[in-house]
Amino acid sequence: MSPQINFEEQFQAKVDAEIKIEPKDWMPDAYRKTLIRQISQHAHSEIVGMLPEGNWLTRAPSLKRKATLLAKIQDEAGHGLYLYSACETLGITRLQTIEDLLSGKAKYSSIFNYPSLSWADMGAIGWLVDGAAIMNQVALCRTSYGPYARAMVRICKEESFHQRQGYEIMMVLSKGSAAQKEMAQDALNRWWWPALMMFGPTDSESSNTEQSMKWKIKRHTNDELRQKFIDASIPQVNYLGLTVPDKDLKWNEERGHYDFGEIDWEEFWNVVKGNGICNKARLKARREAHEQGAWVREAAAAYAEKRASRVNEKVA
Amino acid sequence: MSPQINFEEQFQAKVDAEIKIEPKDWMPDAYRKTLIRQISQHAHSEIVGMLPEGNWLTRAPSLKRKATLLAKIQDEAGHGLYLYSACETLGITRLQTIEDLLSGKAKYSSIFNYPSLSWADMGAIGWLVDGAAIMNQVALCRTSYGPYARAMVRICKEESFHQRQGYEIMMVLSKGSAAQKEMAQDALNRWWWPALMMFGPTDSESSNTEQSMKWKIKRHTNDELRQKFIDASIPQVNYLGLTVPDKDLKWNEERGHYDFGEIDWEEFWNVVKGNGICNKARLKARREAHEQGAWVREAAAAYAEKRASRVNEKVA
Amino acid sequence: MNITLPSKNRTAMCDYVLQMADSNLILAQRLCEWCGHGPILEQDIALSNIGLDLLGATRSLYQYAAQLQNENKTEDDLAFLRGERDFRNFLICELPKGDFGFTVVRQFLFEAYQLLLLEALQQSSDTHLAAIAEKSHKEALYHYKWSAEWVIRLGDGTEESKRRVQESIDDIWTYTGEFFIATEWEQELIAAGAIPDFRTFANAWKEKVAEVFNEATLTMPPADVFMQKGGKNGVHTEHLGFLLAEMQYMQRQFPGEEW
Amino acid sequence: MNITLPSKNRTAMCDYVLQMADSNLILAQRLCEWCGHGPILEQDIALSNIGLDLLGATRSLYQYAAQLQNENKTEDDLAFLRGERDFRNFLICELPKGDFGFTVVRQFLFEAYQLLLLEALQQSSDTHLAAIAEKSHKEALYHYKWSAEWVIRLGDGTEESKRRVQESIDDIWTYTGEFFIATEWEQELIAAGAIPDFRTFANAWKEKVAEVFNEATLTMPPADVFMQKGGKNGVHTEHLGFLLAEMQYMQRQFPGEEW
């Protein structure tokens, strides 16, 4: 037996025993690559996800909502930071990770390629989009890679808070004027299906699931999480007095779950492929921020260097 | 006697006899220079004058007003064109004239360095600023230089129309709600003194007046025109039920004119020197239009050249 | 006013007229942004000219929509007091103005469609709409000619102008599909013969566009480009909200006043 | 709430508190425009932090102004339902955000003033205002430190960063004069001892600024630069109208709703 195989067995044994893998531990190359792909994608999603909400910052309808929204988006930037750091423990720099996003090589969650068109979208995004994200993330708090799992614990706490805030926005609207209620229903109509798509393709179509489950990077299948999300959300929808845009939705007593209609996977793949109404705009915004910030980063680096050499001169 | 002196005498004799000077006629160098300065300054004023009004195009409160305002600003662009053409007959290209504006060498009317802050400003600018301009321009319809005089005839017709439109905006506002009336009064308060300053320094301080009068480039002194403007405007102010921000204003039976308060010449010179609240912004807007349009002008020139050479090839 | 109102399909016709009016208005608003900032004085004037024509058509169309609605609304109520989700304009009209090449390409693609539509609409059984179309068609001919000439000039100009204008074409193309798909109410009107079946215009439009692109040495995007939609159903890009906030501010701030 | 209201100068104090609130709000609105677009993720977060502090102060100040007014208005009425001529913010706050250097310089010059003002205001006989000032002063210390560090970093960074930041200083300088001139109602309050005489802060402010510029190898504009004014009297630049149209749109469109 080659030592390589020993490493691999030891690694899997640790995973099976729920012992966290740490940056300096040996890990299979494919594990590392899968993690880099997944964590960086998650980090990019936090950063790109700032844009649809940022779209309403300057138009928030009250000072309190403006402040809460700003704090929420700031949290997302913070999540981005944790995750870029977790990624760096796997041997890829933040700059490289970001360049992969800007070049289109790395992906981010497709949900952010939908436009935010009304104030109610700030409610729907918090409630449904963050809600769907949490379904995934709660499981990831126990993921096998230590730094990722620990980042997730911090993120999950804040995300639940965001979700409650989002739901509260929906609550106020759905109890408000006719126009406000209509706004809330419209937002639900537009975000419901995209939120369901956030869990990814159905298990039969999903390629990476099996290996990821074995490595405990992933702990539930896409369809399991999707069902869980629907089951949790429908009572919330009912409480708001709104309806989901799915005529096939109904409680299945036998399964103990809600049955739901066919997801439009053609739309899903279209948006993933770059055809969402905002794909171009999102990447453009990120590219412009990066390019227009280049002189600032260069200045900071040059200043740090000057300072270091001045200190050295003094020491010498 | 040198022939030079003969030319000069002949020239002055023509001017005295009210015969128009035409581009190919001999004219004193100083006459040419004075005209270039005056006409180009006038042209630049039309173009820069598009900006404070353009500032309200996207916010005009009705479709009719939006269309009327757009048509008005378009007329100003047209006036700019006539005047740049008149300037070209004196041997300076439009491009050179524009570059003198952008470099800060050439001036434009200082009035356009005041900001347009409310919809009522669209009324006040049309009524008072165009009104003051017309006082000058009507006299210029008989100016000694032919192309300038003819451009002025066309411009004057349109300007009177603009002035009536401006006054009509003020009329609607001053008969509207309390907020609208307040808006109208506020606009009058802000534009009244700057409009009076448009006639330039008092005669005792004005340097070029005497020679320009002799050449019939100018036909009335600054103070004459200013008094005429005030006498014409006050009944219009009264009709609106508004008041001018001048506690010293009153009818002088003996003079047959309105007496008026001291003009704040320090403010006037400050704005001329570049310290108006919009001087930087106005020049910046014109520079950006020019720079961002460079590739378009180059493309048009390149295309025209290609086309010409293709025609030549066919002919050959 | 003594005009012939269509006896049935009135609601659908009202929606359709609003869609035309909204598209004209939003595009005119974008052209207004050029006023005083054009690359050449003569072209500044040309853009204002087109803007004025579009605003004129906007007013006729809103007035007619208000008549069809019969709810005692004015043209300004329809322009300034409807929310973002009520606006039915083509998405192409609301895109930010971009550089001069972008504005020219957008106008060209829009006018090439307008020419076909307005020509056919002159035969509409709705005589009022037919009359508006007749006037607008004459204007569209001029807009089309102006924008086509500029597409050619920029396409066959310098390397930079060619690159810029080609990029604009590639960016805008995805928004042209909306011209040729029919909403429910449009299907109703087409079936009733009240408006032409504009879904059949796609080929003629492409030919018109190809001819000019060809002369301009520009490349037409491939046939399988994904096409955006939503505008006619009130689902817009994120740009429209900001445009409306600015455009409607005065009427929102001072409701019910005369101006 | 049981707070000490000044027995006299109430109207003047209300105007002054509104002026403070407006300046905080308008500047926070400009900082909001950076969110998601910062040059470095950490600095994106820092700008949001400052924005959040300013918004917090805005709310306390409007709430207090509403109490002084005693007309049953809310903080949101004051923020979203007043017109451009009612806003009393310093002109410096409404200038477009510019590049990162511009934003940093504006913040630095503003906070250097705020530090002096808020420190003195803590001694105000108006205990409510003094309490707000105390909280804001702590925050201003952080904002000042952050912005001063960036002024130094950019000034003493690369040639490009030095050029950019120096240009921003030269552009903004003309708007700093407003810090040190008193309106009528401010003169009244100063005379009554209700607020500090901030006209006397000019030298201390300049020293504070000069120290940082010096370390940043940047040049302070000459003493005779012409100073703009008007903001505190509601006469603004052309930028504020557009900012308000966007910021107030929802409240104008849906008056009187809860959010």
Automatic annotation (TrEMBL), chains A, B:
The record's section on Pfam families has: PaaA_PaaC
Q: Kindly give the SUPFAM superfamilies that the UniProt entry links to this protein.
A: Ferritin-like
Which NCBIfam families does the UniProt record give?
PA_CoA_Oxy1
What is the protein named? 1,2-phenylacetyl-CoA epoxidase subunit A
Give the species: Rurimicrobium arvi
Q: What is the primary gene name for this protein?
A: paaA
From TrEMBL, chains C, D:
Question: What name has this protein been given in UniProt?
Answer: Phenylacetate-CoA oxygenase subunit PaaC
Q: What is the protein's species of origin?
A: Rurimicrobium arvi
Q: Sorted alphabetically, which PANTHER family does this protein's record hold?
A: 1,2-PHENYLACETYL-COA EPOXIDASE, SUBUNIT C, PHENYLACETIC ACID DEGRADATION PROTEIN PAA
Extract the InterPro entries matched here: Aromatic_CoA_ox/epox, Ferritin-like, Ferritin-like_SF, PaaA_PaaC, PaaC
Q: Which NCBIfam families match?
A: PA_CoA_Oxy3
Q: Which Pfam families match?
A: PaaA_PaaC
